[in-house]
Design goal:
The protein has four domains: about 90 residues, Multidrug-efflux Transporter Regulator, Chain: A, Domain 2 (Orthogonal Bundle), CATH 1.10.1660.10; about 80 residues, Orthogonal Bundle (Methyltransferase, Methionine Synthase (B12-binding Domains), Chain A, domain 1); about 120 residues, Rossmann fold (3-Layer(aba) Sandwich); about 110 residues, no CATH class. The protein is about 60% helix and about 5% strand. It is built from 18 helices and seven strands. Bound molecules: cobalamin. Cobalamin (B12) binds next to helix 7, helix 8, helix 9, helix 12 and helix 16.
């Protein structure tokens, strides 16, 4: 009569939840040491008994005491060979709770909770549990990327700190690196270069693209985030890519990406791009040369295959002359505009500078809107900034003075109705809402 605790009853995800072991570690033990020896369902799924779960806990406890797994396994076997039950005297844990398939939503919430508590062990356990239930792609997109969006939104709303955001992104980054390293060797001949445009420090999208494309068998050279363009020539010489892929998360880096696209177009290499900012503002893509990769990560490999197999070169829309002139004039007169700003709204201007808004400072947004050829983009970003001020209880009057200061500076160098004058109107309109 099979004893209850040896009845094969629990799937891999229950074992992972109960013990915290990573699915690939458990599979490796089974492969290398033949322990534990789960039953298999007709569908080939592993089924573990309560005794298996206690054995795994026993082996993990020995490891925590400093034993290597081989030693722990050998001890387990020696005790059994001596007719002793290694689990005798061990506290018997309550029977594992059956668990319906944990929804990605539930797993993401558990992961976000863990990272906000700087609880790496729990975050890792949830990620491993997800890998037992879902594909690598589903976990990276549904837990990693979606989890980061949630953490980012909490930072924006002032309910999470930038340190929690750094902790979370470091965990995701490490997981993506590990999975990239574990990807089988390429099976396709094409070489793809992945790089973050200048000033783009958000590295996770590039890592995810590298993982997705390597898992589809392409040779992927990942240059990482914030790649400057000096000496890019040598890198292109050495790697001879069939395609270059870039992503941007902010308006300013959408503008540096646009410059990068021009550099690449002149060298006759295919270019593809994507990113949060292009989902938020589709019109920001208007004057960027290259293939847009769409908004869905799942479709990226298919899109890339189409680009590599296809012959069509994307349409080239060059930036209208009035924007080229406005951008030239803005960059030329920026010091004068900011000098006048410091005079007119010195205190407020310093308040903004101390916030170290960096990529999302009004100046960067103005320059980016001109480079991307759509002044209306500034309105959306000024509203992002105003809400940021509200969420973080920052002085709206300071933002108002600075926007009006920039508007006055722009009017000084603008021609009637040109993009600079239109930008000044947008700033005045948005400032009027900041009471
Ligand atoms: C992680 C993170 C950081 C990390 C980066 C760590 C790293 N090494 O990567 C750190 C903490 C360093 C950081 C810093 C900053 N960050 Co940040 N960051 C993020 C966060 C949370 C995730 C970034 C990311 O990986 N995004 C990619 C995925 C997760 O999200 P997504 O872009 O929304 O993508 C969705 C779609 O757009 C689409 N998608 C996105 N990219 C692509 C690409 C392709 C090819 C496809 C098909 C689809 C696709 O898929 C996703 C949905 O499935 C985002 C929040 C967010 N929503 O992006 C903020 C965010 C991008 N950061 C933001 C800001 C403002 C900053 C800072 C300027 C803040 C500051 N002043 O310090 C600094 C930048 C400093 C600097 N020098 O630039 C803002 C930008 C807002 C704006 N108006 O542009 C965001 C949006 C946060 C927010 N909610 O406001 N950041």
């Amino acid at each position: 009569m099979e004893r209850e605790e040896e009845r094969p009853a629990y799937g891999l995800q229950v074992v992972v939840r109960e013990t915290g072991i990573r699915p690939d570690t458990l599979r490796a033990w089974e492969r290398r040491y033949g322990l534990p020896r789960p039953h298999r369902t007709p569908g080939g799924h592993r089924l573990y008994s309560r005794r298996d779960i206690e054995m795994i806990r026993w082996l993990l406890a020995r490891q925590a005491e400093g034993m290597r797994i081989q030693q722990a396994i050998a001890l387990w076997r020696a005790l059994e060979a001596a007719g002793q039950d290694p689990l005798r005297g061990m506290p018997v844990s309550p029977p594992p709770r059956e668990m319906g398939p944990a929804s990605m939503e539930a797993l993401r919430q558990a992961w976000v909770e863990a990272v906000l508590n700087f609880n790496e062990e729990e975050a890792d356990r949830v990620w491993s549990q997800a890998l037992a239930l879902y594909s690598v792609e589903q976990v990276c997109i549904g837990l990693g990327i979606a989890g980061m969006i949630e953490v980012g939104e909490r930072w924006y709303r002032g309910t999470a700190t930038v340190q929690q955001e750094h902790f979370a992104s470091a965990l995701v980054s490490r997981r993506l690196h590990a999975m990239i390293a574990a990807t089988p060797p390429p099976i396709r001949p094409e070489r793809i270069l992945v790089a973050g445009p200048p000033q783009e420090i958000h590295a996770l999208p590039g890592l995810l693209i590298t993982l997705l494309l390597r898992r589809h068998g392409w040779i992927v050279v990942d240059l990482g985030a914030d790649v400057p363009f000096v000496q890019m020539e040598e890198a292109l010489e050495a790697t001879r890519p069939h395609l270059i892929v870039m992503t941007a998360q902010t308006l300013y880096t959408a503008a540096t990406l646009a410059d990068a696209a021009e550099f690449i177009r002149r060298r006759g290499i295919r270019f593809a791009f994507g990113g949060r900012i292009f989902q938020r503002y589709p019109e920001a893509r208007r004057y960027i040369w290259g293939h847009y990769l769409g908004d869905r990560w799942e479709e990226v490999p298919q899109q890339v295959l189409g680009i590599l197999m296809g012959s069509d070169s994307p349409p080239t829309l060059s930036l209208p002359t009035e924007y080229l002139e406005a951008l030239r004039r803005y960059r030329l007169h920026r010091p004068q505009i900011e000098f006048r700003l410091a005079q007119q709204a010195g205190e407020e201007f310093r308040t903004l500078q101390e916030l170290d808004l960096d990529l999302v400072s009004p100046d960067r947004m103005l320059e980016a809107s001109l480079r991307l050829g759509v002044v209306e983009l500034t309105r959306g970003e000024m509203r992002w900034l105003a809400d940021f001020f509200r969420y973080h209880q920052l002085p709206l009057p300071a933002l108002r003075s600075v926007l009006l200061g920039y508007a006055a500076g722009l009017r000084q160098i603008a021609d009637p109705g040109d993009p600079l004058a239109r930008l000044a109107s947008i700033l005045e309109e948005e400032a009027s809402d900041l009471q």
